[in-house]
Amino acid sequence: MKRKYIFLFFTFMGLSISAQKTLQERLGYPKTAKLLIIHADDLGMAHAQNSGSILAMEKGSVNSASLMVPCPWFSEIAAYAKDHPYGDFGIHLTLNSEWKYYKWRPVLGTEDGRTLIDESGFLHENLEIIDRNANAAEVENELRAQIDLALSKGVDVTHLDTHMGALFLNPDLFQVYKRLGKKYKLPVLLSKAALENYGLSPDLLEESDLVLDRVFTAEPKDYQSGLATYYTKVLQKLQPGVHAILLHTAHLTDELESATIEHEDYGAKWRQQDLDFFTSEKCKNLLKENNIQLLTWREIRDKLVR
């Protein structure tokens, strides 16, 4: 009996020590490591988005990306992902179609997701309508269809994230997000700050959830003062931990200017600035000078989820 209690004691202690490990330690890195995912959103939205992001991954410092399955140029980037099986490609789970004239419909069509569409059959334009109207069951069915379509196209999906934070809008949608990660055995982009920003309780997180230390996204004020200045400060001040920078690398073309018309924030010129910085030698030098190691969702998936 005494041996049994000793065994249980050390088992408990082992679990406690494991629980106290930082995410970087669980991944096999020292506690002092600065790990960073440089992640391009919105692939599939437009050809210019695909071409810019491919350039940023092949020649620049971007090492991860996610695909918008309902969008018109999804097939192009899905084919690229299939031909590059060791790339880091997730699904940018999409519930809204935010541009003025450039729109897309749900993968399941308009009959199986009536709370997800506007009077023209497009995904809703803004997050407020999604928060107010979207039925969680219809959301889950649509998002499963998006993931399944990507898988059927040969994309080795490494993670899930949420376009414009739509799945943080309320607890029901957040639970859909987490269920999808568990169903497909994929990490999902999570941070405590995201929950706080959307007014969600931190109690919605479980001990088993993989939560990044910081997720950085430039805001309109950063664009006004120069995105290169913002990203430089992020890299110079990065602390030990596991972090992600979310950005939108695209070529400034007539196509993209038309798609993002009347949207200065996150529009075509913004996306070209992202591309310029993350294909620059300055960015590569900042990563080296600040001892930042690049990490992928593929590595997180394969080490901690599968």
TrEMBL record:
The keyword S-adenosyl-L-methionine does not apply. Pfam families: YdjC. Keywords: Carbohydrate metabolism, Hydrolase, Magnesium, Metal-binding. Its cofactor is Mg(2+). CDD domains: YdjC_TTHB029_like. It comes from the Bacteria. This is Polysaccharide deacetylase family protein.
